[in-house]
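From the pipeline queue, job 12 of 40. The input is one protein chain; the requested action is below.

Action: predict structure.
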Amino acid sequence: MTDGAFSGDARIRHHPILGDTPSDESVTIYFSGKPIMARKGEPIMAALVAAGIGVFRHTKKGSPRRIFCGIGRCTDCIMIIDGVPGVRTCVTEVRQGMKVERQDGVGVWGNGMEAVDAG
């Protein structure tokens, strides 16, 4: 890209909603139990893409969903974050120790209860 939005390591440095990534400090998040290094303050989606993860969720019918808008307007990037389903990973910043899970359908809360589809 010519606008400087991406660095040489394919990480997003400037997000149209979240702004600039504040630091190069590393944190560890866990995708399905696997540790992934992320940059403090970057969107969860950016950390997952940098780690080679492209499918964020599956619809009720089983269709995979990937990045679509990247600015929080759609629901293609929603995942279960720390037991909470339906979190938009494109506009949610990583934090140390965060647990990220791929979501199927409307997702299931950490207590085992199914989420309600608001759409």
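Job complete. The chain has one domain: 14-101.
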